[in-house]
Every structure is written in structure tokens, then in C-alpha cells.
Amino acid sequence: MFLNILEKKEKEAYFALAKKLIHADNEVAHQESVLMKAMQQEMQWESENLSYLSENLSIQELCNIFVEKRTRVCAIMELIGIAFVDGEFVTAEQDLIYEIGDCMKMDHEEINMYIDWAKRVYGGGTER
Description:
The protein has 128 residues and is mainly alpha-helical. It has one domain (3-127): Orthogonal Bundle (TerB-like), CATH 1.10.3680. It is 70% helix and 3% strand. The protein has seven helices and two strands. The chain has a two-stranded parallel ribbon with strand order 1-2. Helix 1 (8-22) packs antiparallel against helix 2, helix 5 runs antiparallel to helix 6 (91-103) and helix 5 crosses helix 7 (108-122).
């Protein structure tokens, strides 16, 4: 939805964060897998480079790539959307969203506002 405003390096960092997020609960839902594959194909990214980023850079290092507030907001909103795509917003995903938000210098009130937005857009999601 908002990824088009990101620069190439930010898109790569976003994808690496998204990969960490979908693996946060040690379970990759079919919807999450399909979404990631579609993003990778749409952006014509090479999986080796994306794997390198997600496996070798810390969350803080990935978050530091987003310099502008608007790109940080875009990234966190898209990540929250991914967390809701399988219909569940589990504790491990919530914790990682808050960690990413902290690294992007967003307070929890702001993150909660984006989570509430996602609940309305994606139909709520079951929290467990």
C-alpha cells in the first residue's frame, strides 16, 4: 500500500524486517508465505541478498536505514499489516512490532494507533 514511497535500500530493509516478523512465531502461515513471495517477485529482488540482510543485520541496523519519519511510518504500518494477514496477531509478532517501533524512535502510543488502524482495515485479527 505504501511501499512505493520507499527507496531501494529501504525496501530491502523492509523486506528483511518482514521476513523476521513472519518468522517471529516460528510458524509461517500460507498467507504470509504467499505475500512475501509476491513482494519479492514484484520488486524483482534476489533472494540471496534479502536473506543476507535478514540474517546478518540486526533489527536496529535495518531500522537505521529508514531516515525520514514518513518512511518509518510507512514501514511500520506495512509490517503491522503483514502481522494481521493470517488473521492472528500473536504476542511474538506484537513484541517484534514494538521492538521495531522502539528502534524507529516511535512511542507505544503511536504504534498502538497504527495497530488499531490495522485492526479496522484487516478485520481485527485474533490476539493470542
